[in-house]
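# step 3/5: fold
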Amino acid sequence: MRNMLVTASLAIAIAASLAGSLALADSSDSARVGDIQYGNALDPSGWAPLLWPDPRGFSWLHAGMTRTPSGVLYPYPPRRDEQSSPLYKNSDWVYWGFLQLGYLHLGGDAQAEFLRQYAGWKSGIALGLFALYADNPQTGQYVEFRGSRLSGDNQYYRLRAGKYGSYKIEAFYRDIRHNVTTSAYPLWDGVGGTDLTLPSPLVPGGSTPAEVAAVDKARPRQTIGLTRRREGLSFEDNFYRDWTGYISIVNEKRTGDQLWGGPMYLNYILHDNGGALETVRPIDFTTTDVTMGLRDVGTVWQFQLNYTGSFFRSHKDELDYQSPFALTNVVGVPQIANIYQGQFSLEPDNDYHNLRAELSRSLKWNGQLSLAAAWGTMRQNDPLLPPVTCTGT
């Protein structure tokens, strides 16, 4: 553990405040797009140290109220700083900013598995945090930007702007690395692609377990993992009286590789036969989520129409691999052909649609009458592949 901490040490840290204060009023109210938590290995709490709690708390009845009725912890309401600097002379806009730069130096065991599990550590200059916030207390308008970058596989940026009670716009980009292991030694060549081939001197369908074990010991160690990149854009507007419209688009792309499976059988009796294979499959797919809706919250009538769509696209259709072991029949059936080539059919493309409408009317004695209707569908239409490519003749 000590080596891991030294590896991630921040050798030089430079923090500078663009304005005199660090407190702010975060605009993260009921966002429809983005992730709940923003952060990285240097800032796992997502800039929480900058959010000083308001002494008024959440409840006028209980000063120490910090949890919801279900027990989930409330985020502390940030205290607004009344001493923020004006954007320019005689301006109603006030702002504050925070900049944190540093230099990362990796030492010791830089490939330690748990050190790199969810962090893209890399020696060099790192942006610990850049935050810029401006708002107009007179009009309720605000602009907020936050970002942090450790490396090309570990960063986040978010921009928010709007007017409280009227409209809001949000855009974000973030990516994170997830390494399953840093010391894997796959038997095959071509890891990360769709065609896994055996290294020499192994022969597909004609190698003994001892030969496979000898080659396996000399295989180079590799890192197996994936990078998840997400970006999104949303807009919400209270465009007419009690009517509000909203739309959001979020796209996620995952690339990398993953420990996979292969054929197996229980070889307790025939100990000299190979019984299982563990392949490595490629990860290369995208998921696009679309949400849009319209709602009216009136005194008597309430109405909401919502559409949700999710579109999954896999850019790798199959995984082909060579099997090293010599498999023979043991029940007296003549051996027709050796099984030496296998394949997997990877995830198919699919589309999901859901449309929901709700109508409610307030009644006397605190009553309410509600009607709801929904329609949903999910479709996929990709051919499935057999587990082996041998013809048997």
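# step 4/5: annotate
Residues 242 and 298 are 6 Å apart (CA to CA).
# step 5/5: archive (pending)
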